[in-house]
């Protein structure tokens, strides 16, 4: 074999398909994602945090993170890195699932409240046509009460008064149909 052939043969051997694992950049992205997840966990309310499946060591680290909470503080940032390191050696699928459920619940609640606000606006702006449509969907509502509230809300707008009836429509709808939306 000539020198060039030997060099080519060596070059081909080095470029065989070897599994070198994830790149350094990928490892860094993964670590940052775990650190961000740790920050989300630290920022949860206590009732939400109780729904996250954490082992004892991770729970203690999260609790300490909640005490360090000032976001601009360097110790808080380092502690989030520590939480991320702890999470690397654990199965995070149950934690991700619990966080997803919490996030989706917030989105669902916000969507319901938004639909209630849309109904209120339609009732005030469209009057009886919107009321009839609402009553067709939700038979248990009190038509007379809603008509009175709509009239009062329109009067408040005309006279530039505080929107008491406007708010009352929302509260009534929320109390009666929020769970049905």
UniProtKB/TrEMBL annotation:
Gene3D superfamilies: PSPTO4464-like domains (1.10.60.30)
Keywords attached to this entry: Cytoplasm, Ribosome biogenesis, RNA-binding, rRNA-binding
Location(s) in or outside the cell: Cytoplasm
A GO MF label: rRNA binding
Location of region: Disordered: 1-29
Gene Ontology terms describing biological process: assembly of large subunit precursor of preribosome
Main location per the UniProt record: cytoplasm
Pfam families linked: DarP (PF04751)
InterPro entries in the record: DarP, DarP_sf
Membership in a protein family: Belongs to the DarP family.
Function field: Member of a network of 50S ribosomal subunit biogenesis factors which assembles along the 30S-50S interface, preventing incorrect 23S rRNA structures from forming. Promotes peptidyl transferase center (PTC) maturation.
Protein name as catalogued: Dual-action ribosomal maturation protein DarP
């Amino acid at each position: 074999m000539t020198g060039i052939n030997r060099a080519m043969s060596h070059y081909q051997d080095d470029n065989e398909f070897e599994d070198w694992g994830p790149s350094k950049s990928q490892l860094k992205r993964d670590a940052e994602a775990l650190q961000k997840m740790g920050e989300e966990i630290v920022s949860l309310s206590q009732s939400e945090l109780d729904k996250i499946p954490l082992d004892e060591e991770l729970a203690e680290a999260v609790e300490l993170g909640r005490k360090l909470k000032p976001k601009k503080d360097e110790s808080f940032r380092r502690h989030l890195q520590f939480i991320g390191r702890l999470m690397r050696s654990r199965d995070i699928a149950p934690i991700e699932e619990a966080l997803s459920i919490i996030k989706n619940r917030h989105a669902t609640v916000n969507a319901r409240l938004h639909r209630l606000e849309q109904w209120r606006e339609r009732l005030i702006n469209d009057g009886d046509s919107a009321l009839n449509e609402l009553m067709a969907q939700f038979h248990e509502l009190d038509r007379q009460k809603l008509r009175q509230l709509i009239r009062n809300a329109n009067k408040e707008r005309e006279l530039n008064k505080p929107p008491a009836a406007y708010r009352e429509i929302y509260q009534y709808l929320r109390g009666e149909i929020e769970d049905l939306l």
